[in-house]
Amino acid sequence: MTTPKTMGQQYGRRSWAEPWKIKMVEPIRMSDRLTREKAMQEAGYNTFLLRSEDVYIDLLTDSGTSAMSDRQWAGIMLGDEAYAGSRNFYNLEQAVQEYYGFSYVVPTHQGRGAEHLLSQALIRPGHYIPGNMYFTTTRLHQELAGGTFVDVILDAAHDPVNLHPFKGNIDLDKLQALIDEVGAENIPYVSLAGTVNMAGGQPVSMANVRALKELCDRHGIRIYLDATRMVENALFIQEQEEGYEDQSIAAILKEFCSYTDGAWMSAKKDNLVNIGGWLAVRDAELFDALRNLVVIYEGLHTYGGMAGRDMEALAIGISESVEDDHVRARVGQVRYLGGLLTSWDIPIVQPVGGHAIFLDAKRFYPHIPQDQFPAQMLAAQLYLDSGVRSMERGIASAGRDPQTGDHRYPSLELTRLTIPRRVYTQAHMDVVAESVKAVYDARLETHGLKMVYEPKYLRFFQARFEPV
């Protein structure tokens, strides 16, 4: 008699499955090619401007697009909508303290609200903020507060084929050189991100953050963490860093945070909710300043722009987000898609990161100049082929240098296929992979774009393009 176990031995493999079952479904449909062409033209070749009803598989972002659990939906019904002192805030505060280890918690409507508060509280004109590669909203808030972002990530992070396992690491020599040049007194904090988004979701090692802490302590510089995707970062540490293979995701996360002075969170990612964020710190004096600022920009310090029901779902989502099986399945789905594309020799950022596959548009379309937005065109072509929505992470996202007004030309020109948590199946990933291959096979027939409308800030959200 053949058992499941002997079948697995017979075929030399054992499959894994997502640690959840589907309780409710949302219908989706693929429109015809003519409908997609009309929708793309109306959207100005910007996938952010497409209507969701015209999208088949939506990989634009993992921000606020995850599926909540039955426990979270039950928590929604326990919302205490008191303006002040909601019990849901105290549940959220307790969850952040337990799993991230920070003493003081300020809720915000989402991650960029937290970025704004931290920047306003700590940055002054003339300050320099070193970090492991820029993120769009983070850098903008730092600049609007008068600071200058300085990239101090490893050089390997700018190379899409470099296989360094921790390409998100900070180059301590670069950081020391900046300190020597501008003085520690002009560096309010180091801006550290886990699984660096713009580098392809690349992680930071525990050894690196520990060494960073030692360097910053010598100079009296604080470290603030973008913890948006830190549970994914914890998995890479668990798998690849000696001494952590037997530790839980929760334990690794808490140790990593212990080397920092605070963190901000877009809870719409790791924390498994559709809206929300928080900012947490150890310093009581800074907390007092942040608590005062949140009243101005977000709402009272016990709701910060969120409803009570949202805070309850967030508190529950934090506890679910650190479950080992959940994180392995989440990253496993990303790796599944990456494996399919790699088997077809389609150029992607390697190693595969934690939340998305990043197509290397420079190698995909070597004949399209960077100032003709090849990553933007690649996102458009994927939609036209199959209704799959992705997004650009290249020259359009990089924006313009505020001093010269010229385009910034990042070394990485990427199109991001971002996988929501607990939403799509492996079959959806097969459809995505086959669409990428079809677009890749037709790559030499594709030309670039020109920008015909450019907003002042964060242009990639609302810019409009036309084919060259």
Class of secondary structure makeup: alpha/beta
N- and C-termini, Cα separation: 63 Å
Q: What's the story with the biggest beta sheet?
A: 5 strands, mixed
Classified by CATH, the class of the largest domain is Alpha Beta
Shape: globular
Summed over residues and divided by their number, the pLDDT gives a mean of 96
* Proportion of helical residues: 40-55%
CATH topology of the largest domain: the name is Aspartate Aminotransferase, domain 2
> Any idea what the CATH architecture of the largest domain is?
3-Layer(aba) Sandwich
Number of strands: 14
Approximately how much beta-strand content do the residues carry?
Answer: 5-15%
> If strands are numbered along the chain, what order do they take across the biggest sheet?
2-8-7-6-5
Q: What is the CA-atom radius of gyration, in angstroms?
A: 22 Å
Please tell me the total number of domains.
2
CATH superfamily of the largest domain: Type I PLP-dependent aspartate aminotransferase-like (Major domain)
* Low-confidence spans: 1-9
Note down, in words, how this protein is organized:
Helix 6 links the parallel strand 3 and strand 4. It contains 17 helices and 14 strands. With 468 residues, the protein is α/β, with parallel strands linked by helices. It has 2 domains: 203 residues, Aspartate Aminotransferase, domain 1 (Alpha-Beta Complex); 252 residues, Aspartate Aminotransferase, domain 2. The N terminus is likely disordered.
